[in-house]
Amino acid sequence: MEKIKTLFDQYYDDWLPLCPSAGQIITKLEADGETIKNDHIALRTLQSKEFGVEAIAQPFLDLGYVFKGDYIFKEKKLRARHLEHPSDAPRVFISELEFGKLGKETQSVCQNILNNLKKNQKHSCDLGLSGRSWPFSKAVYDALYRESEYAAWFYAFGLRANHFTISFNHLNGFSSITDLNIWIKKAGFSLNDSGGEIKGNPECFLMQSSTMSDDVPIVDDKCGQIFKIPGCYLEFAQRLPDASGQFYGGFVANSADKIFESTSRSSLDQQPNRLKY
Fold it and tell me: Per-residue pLDDT for the chain (277 aa), expressed as one digit of tens each?
């Protein structure tokens, strides 16, 4: 378990600077006497033999994790798998962009990213923590975003945890995830309301909500200017028991489809003055 904790700590330390609001929320919850337990992390990648879902999963498989669920997101051109550990360690959700189904320009950018990753390939245990090793261009980001927000996010941030998830089941001060959402908003944080603030329902045994991504300053390597790009976010998950009394351990594709939109830039589009041109 110590090796598992170390790996998750590495992902957490890499993720938190791209989601500073998560640290504020966690601090506030702990100040209220809550114990924070991570339900799962989510990782993003591109479809390929060397860097696809299975490659990113290898360090977790080496620590005793096993694949449990497979998911398809047809509209977003994504496939995903999730892993679980025999202990109560956090789950891992890994998705990959099937970029071969997108336009030629997006395919070209994604292939260049893969070529860069191959050139700078790290040991498998560090692969998911590689970050971005290629130059950033706001113009390229915008072009990708018009076709695939997922591709644009990956272009900006690379291989790293996209979000961590607080287990609602381990919180004591809220009667429902609705109450938690009210608390989050009163504390001054924005929630993803795509498909409603709460994704899922008791009938599917999983209810989720998430903050909107924090805006992260990134330097355009071509012009040297700073732009703010939606980075990472914090999720909340409530798992419910099924007819047998077992708490549901998987994910719901329709809900996850909307959770993905926590990294959309709609908040920036509504407040253009926040961008530094």
Answer: 899 999 999 999 999 999 999 999 999 999 999 999 999 999 999 999 999 999 999 999 999 999 999 999 999 999 999 999 999 999 999 999 999 999 999 999 999 999 999 988 766 668 899 999 999 999 999 999 999 999 999 999 999 999 999 999 999 999 999 999 999 999 999 999 999 999 999 999 999 999 999 999 999 998 999 999 999 999 999 999 988 899 999 999 999 999 999 998 654 443 333 322 2
Q: Give first-to-last CA distance, the chain, whole Å.
A: 47
Q: Which two tokens stand for residue 166?
A: 């607080």
**Rounded to 5 degrees, what angle do the CA atoms 224, 135, 233 make?**
90
Residue 270, class by beta-carbon neighbours within 10 Å (0-12 exposed, 13-18 middle, 19+ buried)? exposed
Domains and CATH numbers, the chain: 2-274 (3.10.180.50)
- Cα-based torsion angle of the residue sequence 151, 261, 267, 153 in order, rounded to the nearest 10 degrees: -20
The model scores a pTM over 0.90: yes
Question: What is the DSSP pairing of strand 91-97 with strand 38-46?
Answer: parallel
Angle at the Cα of 57 from the Cα atoms of 55 and 62, rounded to 5 degrees: 105
**In whole angstroms, what is the distance from residue 227 CA to residue 97 CA?**
24
Sign of torsion, CA 203 205 206 207?
positive
